[in-house]
Design goal:
Keywords: ATP-binding, Disulfide bond, Glycoprotein, Kinase, Membrane, Nucleotide-binding, Serine/threonine-protein kinase, Signal, Transferase, Transmembrane, Transmembrane helix. Its EC number is 2.7.11.1. With about 350 residues, the chain is an alpha+beta fold. The protein folds into 5 domains: about 35 residues, no CATH class; about 110 residues, no CATH class; about 25 residues; about 120 residues, Phosphorylase Kinase, domain 1 (2-Layer Sandwich); about 30 residues. A 5-stranded mixed sheet has the order 5-4-9-8-10. The longest helix has about 35 residues. It is elongated.
Length: about 350
C-alpha cells in the first residue's frame, strides 16, 4: 500500500490460505484485502494434476487436454477427483506429431512470455472469454489426436462453424418446403370446392354476368349468388320458412329488385348429388308452363344447393285440402277438379 498511515499485514491462516489484511481505525478490526488461492483452480497441481485444465466456471472443473485421457478414470469420472491428472491417448511419433493451440490459458507454474516446457504440464487454467486473460499455449500431441481436436477442426475450412450453419439452413429449407406443400394442397382443395357453377357450365354451355346473375346460354337460366339469397331470406330465418320436405326447406325471400320468390334450400344430408340436381334443373327449366310454378334460377356454391321458384301468393293446394282450416266438401271438389283440369291441359300442351 502506498499510504504509510495504513497498517497491513500478510498472514497464512490455518487452512494454508495467504491473506493480506489492513487495519480499520474506526472499527478497530483487521479487514481482508485479498486472499489466495481465490478458488479451487489456484491450488498448485492438486486439482487437475498433470496435463489437466482447470476451469472454475464449469462442472466438472477438470478436463484433459485434447489428445490426452484421464490417468485414473474411476477417480476422474465417478469420484470427480482429477488430481491424478491425464496421460497421452496415443504415443508420440516425432515424424507426425503436431502442436495443439489452446487459447486464454494461464501458463504452467505462473509463467508468461515465450517459454518452452520439456516436462509434464501442471497448474494450467483456462480463463473465460469475458475475463480477457491468459495467453496462447501450444501442446505437442500425436497427429491422429491433432486431427480430431475441436480447435484443429475449427481451423480447417471453418468446418466446425459450417455444420451448425448447414443444419440451420436445412431446417429452414425443410420448413419452407413444408409450408409451400401445405399451401399447394390448400389451394387445390379450395379449387375443387369452388362454386360448382363451373361444372354446370361445362355441361350446359358458356356463361356471362348480367345484373349480378350468371346466365347459362343453353337453358337461359340464371345462377343466383348465395349471399344474395341469404340476404333475401333474412339469413334463412324460421319466420321466412314456408314449408319443409324430404329434400330440404322452402323459404320466402325478396330479391334486391323487390321480386318475391320461394327459395328451396336442399339439405346437406340429402342423397341428391350434383348430377341429379343438374338433371332436375334441366327438366324443370324445359317444363315452363302457365299452369306450373316457374323455376327462376338456382344457386350451387360449395355445399349449398338452392332452387329459386316463383312465389305462390295463394299458397299450395294441400294447404286448403289438408290445412288447419278445412273447406267444405263442395269447395274441395271444385279445387280438385280444377287441379285435374290443369294437369290435363299441361300434359296436352
Amino acid at each position: 500500500m502506498l499510504n504509510s498511515s495504513v497498517y497491513s499485514r500478510l498472514t497464512i491462516n490455518s487452512s494454508g490460505n495467504l491473506q493480506r489484511l489492513f487495519w480499520s481505525p474506526t472499527a478497530s478490526t483487521w479487514n481482508l484485502y485479498w486472499s489466495f488461492p481465490r478458488d479451487i483452480c489456484d491450488n498448485y497441481s492438486e486439482t487437475c494434476g498433470r496435463f489437466g485444465i482447470c476451469n472454475a466456471d464449469v462442472f466438472p472443473v477438470c478436463k484433459c487436454l485434447s489428445g490426452f485421457r484421464p490417468r485414473d478414470e474411476h477417480s476422474w469420472f465417478d469420484l470427480q477427483d482429477g488430481s491424478s491428472g491425464c496421460v497421452w491417448s496415443s504415443k508420440l511419433d516425432c515424424g507426425s506429431a503436431g502442436f495443439l493451440a489452446l487459447k486464454s490459458m494461464k501458463l504452467p507454474e505462473g509463467g508468461s512470455g515465450c517459454i518452452f516446457w520439456l516436462v509434464d504440464l501442471v497448474d494450467m487454467r483456462q480463463f473465460a472469454e469475458s475475463e480477457n486473460g491468459g495467453q496462447d499455449l501450444y501442446v505437442r500431441v500425436a497427429a491422429s489426436d491433432l486431427e480430431q481436436s475441436p480447435t484443429t477442426r475449427s481451423s480447417k475450412n471453418g468446418s466446425s462453424n459450417g455444420k451448425p450453419v448447414v443444419m440451420i439452413v436445412g431446417i429452414i429449407v425443410g420448413i419452407c418446403a413444408g409450408l409451400i406443400t401445405l399451401l399447394i394442397l390448400l389451394y387445390l382443395k379450395r379449387k375443387n370446392r369452388q362454386p360448382l357453377t363451373k361444372s354446370i357450365t361445362y355441361r350446359t354451355g358458356s356463361k356471362e354476368r348480367v345484373d349480378g346473375e350468371t346466365v347459362m346460354d343453353e337453358l337461359d337460366l340464371p345462377l343466383f349468388d348465395f349471399d344474395t339469397l341469404t340476404m333475401a331470406t333474412n339469413n334463412f330465418s324460421t319466420t321466412n320458412e314456408l314449408g319443409e320436405g324430404g329434400f330440404g326447406c322452402v323459404y320466402k325471400g325478396t330479391l334486391p329488385g323487390g321480386e318475391v320468390v320461394a327459395v328451396k334450400r336442399l339439405s346437406r344430408v340429402s342423397d341428391q348429388g350434383i348430377e341429379e340436381l343438374t338433371n332436375e334443373i334441366r327438366l324443370i327449366a324445359k317444363l315452363q308452363h302457365r299452369n306450373l310454378v316457374r323455376l327462376l334460377g338456382c344457386c350451387i356454391e360449395f355445399e349449398e344447393k338452392l332452387l329459386i321458384y316463383e312465389f305462390m301468393k295463394n299458397r299450395s293446394l294441400d294447404t286448403f285440402l289438408f290445412g288447419k282450416v278445412r273447406v267444405n266438401f263442395g269447395s274441395s271438389l271444385c279445387l280438385t277438379c280444377g287441379y285435374c283440369l290443369n294437369l290435363t291441359c299441361s300434359s296436352k300442351e
